[in-house]
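Handout, page 2. Input:
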Amino acid sequence: MGFQCGIVGLPNVGKSTLFNALTATAAAESANYPFCTIEPNTGRVAVPDSRLDQIAEIAGSQNIIPTSLEFVDIAGLVKGASKGEGLGNQFLGHIREVDAIIHMLRCFESDDITHVEGSVSPLRDKEIIETELMIADLESLEKRLPALEKRIRGRDEEAVHLKSLCEKAIALLSDGKPARLLEPTEAEAPLMKHLQLLTQKPVLYVCNIGEDEIGSPDNEHVKHVKDVAEAEGAKVVTISAEIEAQVAALETEEEKTEFLQALGLDQTGLGKIVKAGYDLLGLMTYFTAGPKEARAWTVPKGATGPEAAGVIHTDFQRGYICAETVSFEDYIAHKGETGAKAAGKLRQEGKEYIVKDGDVILFRFNV
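Output:
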């Protein structure tokens, strides 16, 4: 699987509309009132990648299996959620399980759709959500300190580093900054994952604009979000959740393509979010192909041959001998593995090989 994203935001910013469109289901009830999502809804979607279709055609594959990612539609948080306001902080726990957060921000005006805060201000909305997450993180860290101090008295060296990390995080959060800005020491870095902090998650801001604004220059709301995101080193994607819903309702890929082209768009919001999400998390895709199936696999950038093989099966990693690999471009140019081999483009790579995005690989292993 690719990765798991939690969609967060205030009520009525378009989270459930986006979720429904992305997953092409009506699993999350979308309604014009707060808290219409009372349970986190999870949907798994195929990651669009035209390269996989091209590889499958050349390989004559019977089945095409794309990599996938999961979206979790988390109920709208409100000011005071960490203290039990609205639906309380029960949903904050769901955010801890995801790889990244999609922070949905309403960036359009409409008299027909109410806003829980009474007006449209994406930067204010962003601050409300982030404040609730920071408060929850602070409480979590402060509760950990007594146990860590007890471990330190027992001469637990790991606890010394954890306590230092907690204190740094508390200072950062108290200053109104998210934990993802924390700079741990070399000894502390491996322990970051133990903290399970909400504001430690990478964030992708999704600006939800009106249907009539698609293809137009950024409105003032979007410009403000982009300015703040740039200062944070975060990524921004601009979509119209309503347009995405209309695309999802179309039956064929041809209809979807024609609809997007009529609007001057070259890809769906899902495509934009996937690309931004992969960049945000440092992920890439490699492929395997044969008569039975062509398949896409997701690995971190910098993964070695054995690590990439381990995504398929742990035995592949354990008994790794080599990877017979060819780049996507060479695979297409030379009409597959046989042609690439004849052209000298098929390589045998050992355990130190760093897999590249788009590699088509056959692993050799022995267990």
